[in-house]
């Protein structure tokens, strides 16, 4: 650390109480702008804990946030940012917490170097650089956490959008709703094959009534699913292909000769019962 940098760090560390009170005022104003005044107390507690680590690092002579000297401070900034992302705060609200520290630091730095104009510019630059580095880490941590949350939510939505239901002995039903892309098609295949093995199913009904677009790519995924199910000793009945989709597939010259299709779920269930050697009457009698 240079002599001037050490002096700046010492100045900030020696006026910790003044900086704390100034930052608390900024925190309370931030909570007011966010229309979340009930969070002011918890924000103050986080700020106090953060400032202790920040001042502690400065007292130890570690003022370069680009190095490993303030790893603890950076980690605290990342933890606070990750918590904000999980709680639904916006990026600007999250960054404002750390950036408000700059508004508390700069008046202290300016007052300390008021009589040394030559050093004032460098002092201000040093304080800005420290807080800006913390803000960059805050934003990076927020982004990482939000991406993790979105990825978990996407997996949950996929699981909910591809349920596999055992509707009869040896018969499974998988109703599909929404767009079928490559990732979801793979998940559909895995879920169906797992259910066929688990339930020892002989027939699986794949209902695509809720799929808005049935094109060549979707049909390719369906035919692969049908072929994989055959290897497990099960037949797949595809139901719910709309008239428009049927015309499109004919125009595209898609080969569906190896796929059992029925126009409605009711017709698909009747076909499934036929394939296992049962009947609708038998189904009704057993259910009653």
Task: Give the helices and strands, then pairings.
Blueprint (H helix, E strand, L loop, with lengths): L2 H12 L1 H18 L6 H20 L11 H16 L4 H22 L4 H45 L3 E4 L2 E7 L4 H18 L3 E8 L5 H16 L3 E5 L3 H9 L8 E3 L2 H11 L4 H8 L1
Parallel strand pairs: 2-3, 3-4, 4-5
Antiparallel strand pairs: 1-2
Helix pairs in contact: 1-3, 2-3, 2-5, 3-4, 4-5, 4-6, 5-6, 7-8
Q: Termini separation (Å)?
A: 84 Å
Low-confidence spans:
none
Helix content: 55-70%
SS class:
alpha/beta
Strand order of the largest sheet: 1-2-3-4-5
Total number of helical segments?
11
Our Rg estimate from Cα atoms comes to 32 Å
Mind describing the biggest β-sheet? Answer: 5 strands, mixed
Structure description:
By secondary structure, the protein is of the alpha/beta class. Helices cover 68% and strands 9% of the residues. It is built from 11 helices and 5 strands; from the N terminus they run ααααααββαβαβαβαα. The protein has a 5-stranded mixed sheet with strand order 1-2-3-4-5, sandwiched between helices. Strand 1 (165-168) and strand 2 form a beta hairpin. The protein is rod-shaped. The termini are far apart.
Throw out a few tags for this protein.
single chain; 288 residues; alpha/beta; five-stranded mixed beta sheet; 5 strands
Provide a compact summary of the structure.
The protein is α/β, with parallel strands linked by helices and 288 residues long. It is built from 11 helices and 5 strands.
């Amino acid at each position: 650390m240079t002599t001037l940098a050490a002096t700046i760090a010492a100045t900030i560390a020696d006026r910790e109480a003044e900086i704390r009170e100034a930052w608390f005022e900024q925190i309370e104003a931030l909570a007011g702008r966010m229309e979340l005044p009930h969070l002011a107390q918890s924000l103050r507690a986080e700020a106090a804990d953060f400032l202790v680590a920040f001042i502690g690092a400065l007292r130890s002579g570690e003022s370069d946030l680009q190095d490993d000297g303030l790893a603890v401070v950076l980690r605290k900034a990342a933890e606070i940012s990750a918590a904000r992302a999980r709680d639904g705060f916006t990026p600007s609200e999250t960054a404002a917490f750390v950036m408000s520290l700059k508004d508390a630091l700069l008046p202290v730095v300016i007052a300390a170097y008021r009589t040394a104009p030559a050093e004032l510019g460098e002092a201000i630059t040093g304080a800005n650089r420290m807080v800006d580095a913390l803000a960059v880490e805050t934003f990076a941590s927020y982004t990482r956490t939000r991406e993790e949350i979105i990825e978990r939510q996407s997996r949950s939505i996929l699981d909910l959008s591809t349920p596999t239901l055992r509707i009869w002995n040896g018969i499974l039903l998988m109703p599909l709703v929404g767009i079928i892309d490559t990732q979801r098609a793979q998940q559909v295949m895995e879920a169906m094959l797992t259910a066929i093995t688990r339930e020892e199913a002989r027939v699986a009904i794949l209902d695509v009534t809720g799929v808005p677009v049935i094109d060549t790519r979707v049909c390719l995924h369906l035919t692969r699913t049908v072929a994989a199910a055959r290897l497990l000793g099960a037949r797949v009945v595809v139901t719910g292909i709309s008239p428009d989709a049927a015309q499109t597939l004919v125009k595209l010259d898609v080969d569906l000769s190896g796929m059992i299709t029925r126009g409605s779920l009711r017709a698909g269930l009747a076909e499934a019962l036929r394939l296992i050697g049962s009947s609708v009457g038998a189904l009704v009698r057993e259910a009653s």
